[in-house]
């Protein structure tokens, strides 16, 4: 999968994402600034965002790490604020920036990256890599409806992740938290859009249109990336990019 950020400073974001363990790469002849993790590409567009991730339909993104203490110490040493206490309910115990979530049997922490890009770390013992994309965490006043939409459109497998309603796609979990307040769409914010790789994009777009959805820029070829691309939005304003052939090439 891939994520697309609006960034006020490429240098600041490159420093942050490479500190986490990403690698700066080029794909084809694209001039895009890209950071690669084992299972996700992060594209960075030099454009000041209109706000951070909080308050949008995508509240934060989460990475699995084998040693959360080491990761938190690393990002703190890099000067980034650990916001674990402020991002969890008051009843949740937080000790030395870490919180053990009993119903998930995992320890978590939160950091606020550049441009108020909220990132969660979740400790998962024994992965083959030092860091990997774990989940996308949505916020919605209509959790049931939003999860059902992703199940219907993308074939995500519904389930639970601890107390969170969730759904699984290959390589990534989608999780939902309820919110009373409305949420803004993602376009223009720090996390501008999420990206999913699909097989046979042209047929997939036709299926979406047959279901009554509007597909933006359907199946446009992007030679620099050697892929086709299309856009769709969920009913809560999440901008979603669809690609066919992008993968995780470097």
Number of strands: 16
Number of domains: 1
Question: What is the CATH top level name?
Answer: Alpha Beta
Q: What value does the Rg take, in angstroms?
A: 18 Å
Going by CATH, the homologous superfamily would be 2,3-Dihydroxybiphenyl 1,2-Dioxygenase, domain 1
Question: Would you write up a description of this structure?
Answer:
The protein has 250 residues and is α+β, with helices and mostly antiparallel strands. The chain has one domain: 2,3-Dihydroxybiphenyl 1,2-Dioxygenase, domain 1, CATH 3.10.180.10. Helices cover 19% and strands 40% of the residues. It contains 5 helices and 16 strands. The protein has helices at 10-20, 68-77, 84-87, 143-154, 201-210, and strands at 2-7, 23-25, 33-37, 40-46, 58-65, 99-101, 106-113, 117-123, 132-140, 157-161, 164-169, 172-178, 191-197, 216-222, 227-233, 239-244. The strands form 2 sheets. It has an 8-stranded mixed beta sheet with strand order 2-3-4-1-13-16-15-14. An 8-stranded mixed beta sheet has the order 6-7-8-5-9-12-11-10. The longest helix is centred in the middle third of the chain and has 12 residues, at 143-154. The radius of gyration is 18 Å and the shape is globular. The two termini are 14 Å apart. The mean pLDDT is 92.
Short summary of the structure?
With 250 residues, this protein is of the alpha+beta class. Helix content is 19%, strand content 40%. The protein has one domain (2-244): 2,3-Dihydroxybiphenyl 1,2-Dioxygenase, domain 1, CATH 3.10.180.10.
